[in-house]
């Protein structure tokens, strides 16, 4: 399986990079995983709702250029469907079984994802009703993808 994680912004925090790199290394035997960063749109702290939409749309355009046309797209969104780790594992297994070998997870910027990205997505996934920093979501996502492969192969993984 080829998995891409398309994400907004550059990761600066060393501790997050180390965690992500550890899980990418562990994922090596299971899947080819690449992280694709698109630049975030510079904007002041205080934005009108129109300006927020403009920022999300510009970031969304960048995201869409990085998604493979045949990829099954899973957008991370707070209003998405919540799944257990086992359900995510079953979903990835089902995608592989039915020939969807290219999966793209999409993590938006601090304002979320544009409507166009949500429309392109085959499904939306929520990790919680809480808000997490988008940089931290990369680490959480790669850990859950690793966990999903371990679950699917019946290999032990801490609970």
TrEMBL record:
- Subcellular localization(s) per the UniProt record: Cytoplasm
UniProt keyword Signal, yes or no: no
- Binding residue positions for S-adenosyl-L-methionine: 76, 108, 127-132
Q: Which organism is the protein's source?
A: Rossellomorea pakistanensis
* Domain of life, source organism: Bacteria
Keyword annotations for this protein? Cytoplasm, Methyltransferase, rRNA processing, S-adenosyl-L-methionine, Transferase
Q: Which InterPro entries match?
A: Alpha/beta_knot_MTases, RlmH-like, tRNA_m1G_MTases_N
Provide a Gene Ontology MF annotation, just one.
Answer: methyltransferase activity
Q: Which gene encodes it?
A: rlmH
Biological process (GO) annotations?
methylation
**What is the protein named?**
Ribosomal RNA large subunit methyltransferase H
* Keyword Transferase in annotation: yes
Subunit composition and interactions: Homodimer.
Pfam families listed in its UniProt record: SPOUT_MTase
Q: What does this protein do?
A: Specifically methylates the pseudouridine at position 1915 (m3Psi1915) in 23S rRNA.
Q: Which family does it belong to?
A: Belongs to the RNA methyltransferase RlmH family.
Check the record and name the CDD domains matching this protein. RlmH-like (cd18081)
Q: What class of enzyme is it?
A: transferase
Q: Which reaction does it catalyse?
A: pseudouridine(1915) in 23S rRNA + S-adenosyl-L-methionine = N(3)-methylpseudouridine(1915) in 23S rRNA + S-adenosyl-L-homocysteine + H(+)
Q: What is its EC number?
A: 2.1.1.177
